[in-house]
Amino acid sequence: MGGMGRLSKGIPPTNCLTNGIRRQPYSRLKNTSLYKLTMKSDPDILLKKHKNLVHSEMLKVNSHVQRAAGDWVINIIMIEGYDVPFKYKRKKKYKKIEGARVNLTYYPDTEIVAGIEFEIMTVVRIKIA
Q1: How many angstroms separate the CA atoms of 37 and 35, rounded?
Q2: Alpha helix (H) residue ranges in 8-121
Q3: How far apart (Å, rounded) are the C-alpha atoms in residues 22 and 14?
Q4: 109 CB contacts (<8 Å, ≥6 apart)?
Q5: If you average pLDDT over every residue of the chain, what do you get?
Q6: pTM surpassing 0.85?
Q7: Where are the domains of the chain?
């Protein structure tokens, strides 16, 4: 055990190969684009950058419908107390969230169907509360 050093204590070395990818210590990644990609999106940061965004928490989902549209799956949810559908896209089908409480970041938008204009909310971020 004496020759193993950090590994004997269960601590991985700072620069190690994992699945052929060299891992860097967390402190070196902080200011890189890789760190920004892996960081969870914070609604406060989004709200500061985009003035039209609205963030709401603990909203109850009354209805959730998913349908395929090409390579995407269109998700439409209805929220308790709102008469407007909330719409977002995913690459894969997602579990039903009907009856769940969610945190949403969205902006108002319009959609034209058969020449009639409908108000919708386009969801930027959805998270189960």
Answers
A1: 5
A2: 26-29, 33-38, 43-49
A3: 10
A4: 119, 120, 121, 122
A5: 77
A6: no
A7: 12-38, 43-128
Q: CA-CA distance, 27 to 23, in Å (whole number)? A: 12
CATH number corresponding to 43-128: 2.40.50.460
Place of tokens 């990644």: 29
Strands 72-79 and 54-69: antiparallel
The CA distance from 1 to 25, in Å, is 24
Distance CA 29, CA 78 (A): 39
CA quadruple 4, 6, 11, 17: dihedral positive or negative? negative
pLDDT digits (tens, 9 = 90+) for 47-100: 667 678 888 889 999 999 999 999 999 999 999 999 999 999 999 998 899 999
Which two three-digit tokens encode residue 120? Answer: 């919708």
Mind listing the pLDDT tens digit for each residue in 53-67? 888 889 999 999 999
